[in-house]
Amino acid sequence: MANFVKVAGTSDLKPGENKVVNVNGAEVALFNVDNEFFATTNICPHRGGPLGEGFLESDVVTCPWHGWRFNVNSSRHSGL
Ligand code: FES
């Protein structure tokens, strides 16, 4: 059975915003894309940059360290 942990309310994140939260010791990146909410690991697969501190445009976040881009709704690499 899944355990749910409340880390934020929907009003804590406006459309186009993202933030990092801690869930039982793990950093998780939250994204609000037009009031749809997504959660991914905060760790960029390139070199561990903080995805939750990246630039969010539509449903694509750009890692702040080297600019790799990911779709937040699939975590698929979106090209450079
Ligand atoms: S660590 Fe994210 S692009 Fe390099």
Tags for this model:
80 residues; mainly beta; Rieske Iron-sulfur Protein; 3-stranded antiparallel sheet; binds FE2/S2 (inorganic) cluster
Walk me through the structure.
It is built from no helices and six strands. It has 80 residues and is mainly β. It has a domain of 55 residues: Rieske Iron-sulfur Protein. Strands 1-2-3 form a three-stranded antiparallel β-sheet, with no helix packed on it. The chain has a three-stranded antiparallel β-sheet with strand order 4-5-6, with no helix packed on it. Strand 5 and strand 6 form a beta hairpin. The chain binds FE2/S2 (inorganic) cluster. The site of FE2/S2 (inorganic) cluster has 10 residues, from loops.
Short précis:
This protein has no helices and 6 strands. It has 80 residues and is mainly beta. It has a domain at 17-71: Rieske [2Fe-2S] iron-sulphur domain (Rieske Iron-sulfur Protein, 3-layer Sandwich).
Bound small molecules, which ones? Answer: FE2/S2 (inorganic) cluster
What is the fold named in CATH at topology level of the domain at 17-71?
A: Rieske Iron-sulfur Protein
What kind of sheet is the major sheet? 3 strands, antiparallel
Can you name the CATH architecture of the domain at 17-71?
Answer: 3-layer Sandwich
CATH class of the domain at 17-71: Mainly Beta
CATH superfamily of the domain at 17-71: Rieske [2Fe-2S] iron-sulphur domain
> Helix/strand-derived class?
mainly beta
Task: Produce the secondary structure layout.
Elements: E1 18-23, E2 26-33, E3 36-41, E4 55-57, E5 60-62, E6 69-71
Antiparallel strand pairs: 1-2, 2-3, 4-5, 5-6
The protein binds FE2/S2 (inorganic) cluster.
FE2/S2 (inorganic) cluster binds next to loops.
